[in-house]
Design goal:
Layout lengths: L6 E5 L20 E2 L2 E2 H11 L4 E6 L4 H6 L4 H9 L3 H11 L3 E6 L6 H6 L2 H4 L4 E4 L3 E4 L4 H12 L3 E6 L9 E7 L4 E9 L10 E3 L2 E4 L1 H13 L7 H10 L5 E4 L3 E4 L3 H12 L6 H11 L1
Parallel strand pairs: 1-4, 1-6, 4-5, 8-13
Antiparallel strand pairs: 2-3, 6-12, 7-14, 8-11, 8-12, 9-10, 9-11, 10-13
């Protein structure tokens, strides 16, 4: 019997050291791309795929994320009084995007350890996983793309994209058999290899569907290497070595990596050029300085 994905995990416990001092008190996921924080774009992508239960894995100094997705009656009332009902409705709509749960990762022990914190809320189901730097501008929700692939294969799905050889050392890199224009059967998963050692230039930017079997392996590795950093990539490597099937889905759309300063600025320009309030002014400004 086919199982369906009904929940999503968004790990947001990272320290955001690449954006200091801005992230001293503000989570990197709350940095704005034009007029919305990165994390809201990710939530909207999840919701566009039909998923309404979202679990955040948080850490210290992440309360701002909880506040953002909570109701704000005082702000709504002020906006109403100032004759700005559309803005008041906009603020209210954020809290209604989905049902949100929050779990604290008490120790910074890697993304695999973060995912394990949510297992009790997932049960014996597959789950969508979206990391905080993986913003996409796409006609079809990238999360919906992954769900469609999961329906086909009923196995873990890794969202994939191509990068230049010079950038592969930042990501998990795959090797495998190409099934069709969208899908790969993954045979090897190498975490952050040098450009010389990388088996390909096809990488995992940070969107997955993982199954209970992945959680089982993460749990085994966590017990075996208690106290060490635990990576999702390590679970994939273990599963592939024992012959488990893992598939990749080439994600369609424009990937807007927000994990470093330059990429973050590019994401702002890209989305700014599509924003109805500022697109023309931004385009004119860019022309004036080039």
């Amino acid at each position: 019997m086919k199982t369906k994905v009904t929940k999503a995990i968004l790990p947001v416990a990272g320290l955001g050291t690449r954006f200091l001092p801005a992230t001293k008190v503000m989570p990197k996921e709350m940095l704005p791309v034009v007029d919305k924080p990165v994390i809201q774009y990710l939530v909207e992508d999840v919701v566009a795929a039909g998923i309404k239960e979202i679990i955040f894995i948080t850490g210290r100094e992440k309360r701002t994320i909880e506040d953002h997705f909570d109701i704000a009656p005082g702000l709504e009332r002020t906006l109403q009084e100032k004759g700005k009902p559309e803005q008041a409705e906009l603020i209210r709509s954020i809290s209604n995007l989905a049902e949100f749960s929050y779990i604290r990762q008490k120790e910074a022990r890697g993304d695999g350890h973060a995912l394990l914190q949510a297992r009790r809320l997932i049960g014996d189901e597959p789950v969508l996983v979206v990391f905080g730097d993986c913003l996409y501008d796409s006609d079809v929700s990238t999360c919906k793309q992954l769900l469609d692939s999961y329906e086909k294969f009923q196995a873990p799905i890794v969202g994939l994209t191509e990068v230049s050889r010079s950038e592969v050392s930042k990501f998990g890199v795959i090797d495998g058999l190409k099934i069709d224009e969208k899908h790969w059967e993954i045979k090897n998963f190498v975490e952050k290899p040098s450009s010389e050692r990388a088996p390909s230039n096809i990488v995992a930017p940070g969107k997955y569907i993982i199954t209970p079997a992945v959680f089982d392996v993460l749990d085994e590795l966590n017990k075996k290497y208690s106290g060490d950093e635990l990576r999702l990539a390590s679970a994939f490597e273990t599963m592939l070595k024992r012959g488990d099937k893992i598939y990749g889905r080439m994600l369609e759309g424009q990937w807007l990596d927000t994990g470093d300063k330059f990429s973050f600025l590019k994401a702002n320009i890209h989305m700014g050029l599509k924003h109805p309030d500022i697109a023309t002014k931004l385009k004119d400004y860019l022309k004036s300085i080039l």
